[in-house]
Amino acid sequence: MKNVVLGLVGVGRIGVMHANNITALNGALNPKGINVKLSLTDVAEEHARNVAAGLGAEYLSSVDALLASGVDGLVIATGTATHPELIRAGVDADLPVFCEKPVAMNVADALPVLDYVRDRNGVVQIGHQRRFDAGYLEARRAYQAGELGWIHSLRAVTCDMTPPPVEFLATSGGLFRDCSVHDFDILRWLTGRDIVEVYAKGSNNGDPAIGEVGDVDTALALVTFDDGTVGTVSASRYNGAGHDVRLEIQGSSRSLMVGLDDKTAMASAEPGVVFPSGEPHRTFAERFDQAYRSEMAAFVELVLGQRDNPCTPEDAVAASRVADAAQESLVSGLSVRVAGAVTSQVP
Ligand SMILES: NC(=O)c1ccc[n+]([C@@H]2O[C@H](COP(=O)([O-])OP(=O)(O)OC[C@H]3O[C@@H](n4cnc5c(N)ncnc54)[C@H](O)[C@@H]3O)[C@@H](O)[C@H]2O)c1
């Protein structure tokens, strides 16, 4: 039996979910002879102690104590502004690192981190969990196998039911960097193509506090790929029908929609049509439950040297470049070229 101890920093909204998933991995990975243990820390000490106690995990009083405790991998789920410093700390401790997206608040802040990791041969997986979602995986497989023909249109949607706290939004980098970055990543990953230009618009018809911290509650980005294909990326914080994440891929031979199932947060206006018949997802944690679990299982395999890195910091920064361009377009009202976009691996 191989023992793997993961050290988790940050048990807020997503950190608690990762803590639960890491603990649950034991059941899933034990048949492969892997035993996973969890140690965790958070500056909110009492909360962290409670989370640890509830999961039978070890609580440590600081990041330094966590790194010194003999963990095999570091999982970072703190707010975005702390990611660069913690990634460096994990690499300095010679540990494989999993860090929630994004690498940093913006691309300028992320580039020195990329250099730091590369210069030290660090291993850092970034948390773009959609790369592990069954629907996106199938769409990518079908496209790469030639089953869709050539793609003529892509329409990506990510809508939350309700906004996260305004205090979170104030430091999130904006709707494109916080939310649509998942769509920018998945579009590049699925098509194997770079996005080279973005034109974005947004609106604020919900809580005025969102506008006051410089963000929008709803936005649309028109993206152009390096072969001229166009697509749209749409996001909102106010989708009362449910947590709605979909991607339409229309090809010359066949079309697919990721996220079209009984839980899709969209009703048909056609009389007599009862699809979808189930209860829609309410949160990203529900919608991507399987993907988050698979992502963490992949990190354990990465720690053990059993697989390639499924999402490198360079991948994540390529998506962040598109998000930065979308944010710039939103502010300037002009179409913006994506800095450094190059043609990547065309399937
Ligand atoms: N992949 C996804 O789908 C997804 C979804 C939500 C959030 N995220 C990302 O996860 C990150 C965290 O988001 P969240 O919503 O969980 O935030 P959060 O504010 O709810 O939680 C952050 C936690 O980190 C702790 N913390 C902050 N600095 C710390 C430090 N230096 N040492 C120890 N603990 C520290 C805070 O006390 C808090 O408990 C963000 O970067 C966000 O972009 C990703």
Describe this structure in words.
The chain has two domains: 2-128 and 295-312, Rossmann fold; 131-283 and 314-337, Dihydrodipicolinate Reductase, domain 2 (2-Layer Sandwich). Strand 1 (2-9), helix 1 (13-29) and strand 2 (34-41) form a beta-alpha-beta unit. The strands form two sheets. A seven-stranded mixed β-sheet has the order 12-11-7-10-9-8-13. The protein has a six-stranded parallel β-sheet with strand order 3-2-1-4-5-6, with helices on both faces. The protein is globular, with a radius of gyration of 20 Å. The chain has helices at 13-29, 45-55, 63-68, 83-92, 107-119, 134-144, 166-170, 175-191, 208-212, 284-287, 289-303, 313-332, and strands at 2-9, 34-41, 58-59, 73-76, 97-100, 124-127, 151-159, 195-203, 218-225, 230-236, 244-251, 255-258, 336-337. The model is unreliable at 342-347 (pLDDT under 50). It contains twelve helices and 13 strands. It has 347 residues and is an alpha/beta fold. Nicotinamide-adenine-dinucleotide (NAD) is lined by residues 9-15, 41-44, 63, 77-80, 82, 100-101, 127, 129, 168, 178, 284.
Topology:
Layout: E1 2-9, H1 13-29, E2 34-41, H2 45-55, E3 58-59, H3 63-68, E4 73-76, H4 83-92, E5 97-100, H5 107-119, E6 124-127, H6 134-144, E7 151-159, H7 166-170, H8 175-191, E8 195-203, H9 208-212, E9 218-225, E10 230-236, E11 244-251, E12 255-258, H10 284-287, H11 289-303, H12 313-332, E13 336-337
Parallel strand pairs: 1-2, 1-4, 2-3, 4-5, 5-6, 7-10
Antiparallel strand pairs: 7-11, 8-9, 8-13, 9-10, 11-12
Helix pairs in contact: 1-11, 4-5, 5-12, 6-8, 8-12
The chain binds nicotinamide-adenine-dinucleotide.
